[in-house]
Amino acid sequence: MKNTLLIIGLIIFTFTTVNAQKGVDFGVKGGINFSNMTSDYFAENDSKTGFHIGLITEIPFGDKFSVQPEILYSRQGTKAKLLTIGVSSIPSEYNLDYIQIPVLAKIYIVKNLSLEVGPSFSFLVKDEEVMNSVTNSNIGNNFEFSGVLGVSYKLTSGIFGSLR
Fold it and tell me: How many CA atoms within 13 Å lie on the side-chain side of 136?
């Protein structure tokens, strides 16, 4: 895990945005996650703030359509109170770290504004449940498949912002 973080950190500090031939763009990406989990065993739960960081490329197929594969390290989870019988609910925290590989179709509505849609393949690299100062692992699924839907806006400098 430490090696993975070290490699990602080195890439961030040495990788710059490159414009290759035919308009293929490469770059780094980082952002904030707001994640939550639900369960029949939770009396209540709250979202948890995490982050994601990784590499991105955009491959254009004309002026209005491109494909955007990414590889991201993402930290997610939730804070919850577990249901119990005869005892007050037990506070717990769930921390899940993933390598995510979304492959998105980008459809440009206007020049710099696009819709993003596609699958995401997530591989669990670390998981833990902290309850009463006891840490358990192996609580999450090793693989998750999900869909991504979002919108992004690209500035003329090549920097972009997106909401998913």
Answer: 9
Provide the 8-state DSSP code for 156: T
Element (H, E) at 153: strand 143-154
Structure-token pair, residue 55: 């590499």
Record the pTM: 0.77
Structural contact between residues 74 and 111, judged by C-beta atoms closer than 8 angstroms: no
What is the residue type of 82?
L
Phi-psi label, residue 81: left if phi above 0, alpha if psi -120 to 50, beta otherwise: beta
Among 95, 140, 143, 141, smallest CA distance to 120 is for: 143
Q: From the centroid of its chain, how far is CA 148?
A: 10
Separation between Cα atoms, residue 48 and residue 16, nearest integer Å:
31
111-147 residue pLDDT tens? 899 999 999 999 999 999 888 888 888 877 899 999 9
User: Rg of the Cα trace of the chain?
Assistant: 19
